[in-house]
Amino acid sequence: MRKWLSVVLLLAFLILPTPAGAQGGVKLKSINIELWSEYDQPSMLVIHEFTVDEGVALPVNVTVRFPKDANLTAVAAVAESNLVSIGYEGPETQGNWQTVTVNVQTYAPHRVEYYQPLIREDNTRRFSFRWLGDYPVEMFNVAVQIPVDSTDVASEPVLSGTGPTSDGLHLVGIASRGKLKMGQSYEFKIEYQRALETVTKPQNSANIQPAEPVGSNTEGRVSIDNLPYVIGGFGLALIGVALFFYWRSTQTPERKSRQRRRSAGSQDEEEEEVAYCHECGTRANKGDRFCRTCGSRLRV
Questions:
Q1: If phi over 0 gives left and psi between -120 and 50 gives alpha, with beta otherwise, what is residue 91?
Q2: Which of 281, 280, 278 is CA-nearest to residue 298?
Q3: Burial of residue 71 (number of CB atoms within 10 Å: 0-12, 13-18, 19+)
């Protein structure tokens, strides 16, 4: 009985769809990879755009894989010729890769954008993009954009249609491959030389300039020309406060000691003013001229 139960469970496991099987049911009409090197960051901006084939029933989940050291920046879809941010699951780390899962509702292009570091050795820049064949793809395109001052450009496969862009800041080239089967990988590599470290399209924050030249009279500017004098004056003030409190600490005990001496002197004076009768020895009160006991005249 247990043997038959094990066989049934094994068959059920084989029949039930697995993630790989579900993934295999998705077919992509196209994948367009745009690589913008040193564009607005000193790294590679990767734009991974895909379109689901019209023969696939929607909605459907599409998982996009990208390297672990990449920084995801956007997930969007084209809606009425505009890019609109959409929800997604992830990113999740799987070995040397990250994945995001997009729930595709339309046959419009969907896009995943991220930055990935360039490999640098002196003036040499290297970068490679690899597609692992997660889905069958009808048409796979790679478009590369590098700074126009780049030299000794080499790529594998070789780029076609290489030339400068209309803005004169970049060189572009294209590589294409058709009908990639599921599990069939595709790799693109590029290498070039460049002496400069500047990006071709600085971010808006880097382009902010002051409305007028900054000078000594600019509002909100703090000058440090007189800083030594300020520090010196503050130090002298602290020394003065310290001396004042020291003087007070030395004066208070003297005042108390003087009061104690004054009190002791008053007591001595009172003791000196006390008189006794020389006849009978009776103590006389202050101001007495005659003894209150025997009537003898006091010797005051």
A1: beta
A2: 278
A3: middle
Each residue's pLDDT tens digit, 119-128: 999 999 999 9
Whose structure tokens read 């470290």?
Answer: 197
Is the sign of the CA dihedral 172, 178, 180, 185 positive or negative?
negative
DSSP secondary structure letter of residue 297 = B
172-211 confidence digits (pLDDT tens): 999 999 999 999 999 999 999 999 999 999 864 344 444 4
Q: How far is Cα 172 from Cα 37, in angstroms, rounded to an integer?
A: 10
What's the CA gap between 87 and 177, in Å, rounded?
30
Residue linked to tokens 């001229």: 289
Dihedral sign for Cα atoms in the order 227, 230, 234, 235: positive
Say which residues have a Cβ less than 8 Å from residue 145's Cβ, sequence separation at least 6: 34, 35, 36, 37, 39, 165, 170, 171, 172
Query: Strands 60-67 and 97-104: what pairing?
Result: antiparallel
